[in-house]
C-alpha cells in the first residue's frame, strides 16, 4: 500500500489548520481552557514536523520542533500569550529562514523560481535576491503587527488581523509582484537592446 496519498492528505490538513489557526483559537477559547488549546497547538506543530521528516525535509522538521519548544516555554509563563504569539513566531521563523538563504548561493526566492525555470539569467538571479529581501521585510513587519495585536488588542482584533488581514496582505504582495516584475524586466530588456545596460 502506498502512503503517498495519506501523507498528502495529512500535509494538506495540517497546513489548513495552520491557516485557520486564529479563527479556531477564537472559537475554541469559548469552549476549552487555554491549556487545551496550547496542547492542541503543540500537537499540530509536532505532527507537522513528522510530515517533514517523512518528506525528508529535515531542516524544516527541525524548525518545526524549535517552534514547538519556543511555544511550550512561552506557555509556562502564560498560555494565552503563547497561543496569541504563535503567528509572531511563525513570521519570525519564516523571516529568519529567508534571511539565512541570503548568505548562500541561492536565496529562497531564487530556489523557488528555479523549480519552474532551472536556468535563470543574471538579471533574474539579481531580481530574486532583491525579492527575497522584500519578503524578509514583509515577515518582519507582519511579526511586529502580530505581536502588537497579541499583546495590546482584543481577541476579535487579533483574530481579524492574523486570521484574515495578514493573509490578504501576503496575497497582495504575491500577486502585486507579478506586474512589477514584468515592468522591470521589460525596462531591463529595452536597456539591453539599446546598449545602455548598467552593471
UniProtKB/TrEMBL annotation:
The chain crosses the membrane at residues 32-51, 58-77, 83-104, 134-152, 158-180. Keywords: Membrane, Transmembrane, Transmembrane helix. This is Intracellular septation protein A.
Amino acid at each position: 500500500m502506498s502512503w503517498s496519498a495519506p501523507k498528502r492528505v495529512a500535509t494538506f490538513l495540517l497546513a489548513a489548520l495552520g491557516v485557520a489557526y486564529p479563527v479556531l483559537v477564537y472559537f475554541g477559547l469559548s469552549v476549552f481552557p487555554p491549556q487545551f488549546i496550547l496542547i492542541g497547538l503543540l500537537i499540530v506543530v509536532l505532527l507537522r514536523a513528522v510530515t517533514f521528516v517523512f518528506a525528508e525535509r529535515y531542516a524544516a522538521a527541525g524548525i518545526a520542533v524549535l517552534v514547538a519548544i519556543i511555544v511550550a516555554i512561552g506557555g509556562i509563563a502564560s498560555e494565552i500569550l503563547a497561543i496569541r504569539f504563535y503567528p509572531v513566531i511563525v513570521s519570525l521563523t519564516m523571516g529568519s529562514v529567508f534571511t539565512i538563504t541570503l548568505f548562500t548561493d541561492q536565496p529562497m526566492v531564487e530556489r523557488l523560481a528555479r523549480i519552474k525555470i532551472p536556468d535563470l539569467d543574471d538579471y533574474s538571479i539579481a531580481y530574486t535576491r532583491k525579492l527575497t529581501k522584500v519578503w524578509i521585510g514583509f515577515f518582519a513587519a507582519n511579526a511586529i503587527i502580530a505581536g502588537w495585536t497579541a499583546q495590546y488588542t482584543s481577541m476579535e482584533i487579533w483574530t481579524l488581523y492574523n486570521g484574515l488581514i495578514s493573509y490578504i496582505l501576503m496575497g497582495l504582495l504575491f500577486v502585486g509582484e507579478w506586474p512589477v516584475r514584468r515592468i522591470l524586466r521589460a525596462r531591463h530588456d529595452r536597456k539591453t537592446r539599446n546598449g545602455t545596460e548598467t552593471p
